[in-house]
Design a protein that fits this description.
Rossmann fold; 6-stranded parallel β-sheet; 8 helices; globular
């Protein structure tokens, strides 16, 4: 089994950089990287996944230069990334998730894809993987709930317990 994580507002609190990301002022965003912190409990969860050899990666609509700076700054050991330029179509299209599935090399039904936005859920569903929505970073909670993910987590603790039960126990 494997895990696909969205990056922004799923693993890291990045809303303070949103206006600069939207304006493509990446030099400003890169300076902000140390202030874009993982949500409480995320760093420990990723460490636990690594210690238990659970394969996981990040699929983001952000450029690789940004994603890789976040990963390097927080010293995460992700197995792969799929970023903005890695596919011609972005979420909600399934291409980024399908590329992640190929990188994981696992059956689709054994992969859970986790994100904070309805586009994450739609892309996951269209790719045929298990979808999970996370409410702690969601910009539009109602829209995320209405997207009807297979699983919905209010807290990081709920998600972490689910992942431990599915992948570690």
């Amino acid at each position: 089994m494997g895990i696909i994580f969205d990056l922004d507002q799923t693993l890291i609190e990045s809303h303070t950089a949103e206006q600069y990301r939207t304006a493509r002022k990446w030099d400003v965003v890169y300076e902000m990287v140390p202030k874009l912190t993982p949500f409480e409990g995320i760093h420990e969860l990723l460490t636990e996944l690594n210690l238990n050899s659970v394969p996981y990666g990040i699929v983001t609509s952000s450029p690789a230069s940004y994603c890789n700076r976040i990963i390097k700054h927080w010293n995460w050991n992700t197995q792969f990334t799929v970023c903005f330029h890695d596919t011609t179509k972005r979420k909600p299209h399934p291409d980024p998730i399908n590329l992640a599935v190929r990188k994981l090399g696992l059956p689709k039904q054994s992969i859970v894809s986790i994100g904070d936005d309805p586009n994450d859920v739609i892309a996951s569903r269209n790719a045929g993987v298990i979808s999970a929505g996370v409410l702690w970073g969601a910009k539009d909670r109602s829209a995320l709930i209405a997207s009807n993910p297979d699983y919905l987590f209010e807290t990081i603790e709920e998600m972490s317990n689910f992942l431990r039960n599915q992948f570690i126990s």
